[in-house]
Design a protein that fits this description.
With about 190 residues, the chain is mainly β. Helix content is about 15%, strand content about 35%.
């Protein structure tokens, strides 16, 4: 499986990836009449959300969703219905597939629970599989919400660094076990 595109969250004017969710109430397209289509292995869900924390309240800022060809044509020709008062546009996403974009939604999300958000991904820890876990980022925060209101923010960066220290051996360990390919003639 390809590494997956995670949802984003703008917090304190910085963009974070959502790397962990424990709670209920995040945006779910099917609950609003959408039928996301997966057209890339980088986004099996067929959609991606960007959230925004403004004055300690969680909002859905943007929805990028891949719809059926028929629905895309409706959007392209300006006949799409609005969603939460916003009309969609069609544009290519970072993975090169045209998607329907609903931007500047500013829709209150009544999420209750905890989000782990992270930034500054450590590229040497990338694994081409699923969503990347929190310990693979330099900066990690736990945001605790109740009905969409931010109740607490806890910096978990040091704990993630401790996890990395425990599960990732030092590089000299790898050097001892490094395998070298040798062709038929031993070179």
């Amino acid at each position: 499986m390809t590494g997956q595109i995670s949802d984003g969250l703008i917090y304190k004017s910085q963009i974070f990836c959502i790397v962990g969710v424990d709670g209920v109430g995040l945006f779910e397209p099917t609950q609003h009449g959408f039928s996301p289509q997966s057209v890339t292995t980088a986004c099996w869900r067929g959609y991606c959300c960007t959230y925004n924390v403004i004055e300690e309240i969680l909002y859905l800022k943007e929805l990028i969703i891949t719809l059926s060809l028929k629905q895309k044509l409706i959007v392209k020709h300006g006949r799409a219905k609005d969603f939460l008062g916003v009309f969609p546009c069609l544009r290519d996403t970072p993975v090169g597939h045209p998607s329907t974009i609903y931007d500047e939604l500013n829709h209150l999300v009544e999420f209750t629970g905890s989000l782990l958000v992270a930034k500054n991904f450590i590229k040497s820890l990338y694994v081409h599989l699923g969503f990347q876990p929190a310990y693979k980022y330099e900066e990690v925060h736990q945001l605790i919400f109740k009905s969409g209101y931010l109740m607490q923010s806890i910096n978990r960066s040091e704990e993630m660094a401790e996890i990395r220290q425990k599960i990732i051996p030092p590089f000299n360990f790898y050097d001892q076990w490094h395998l070298t390919w040798r062709g038929k003639n031993g070179s």
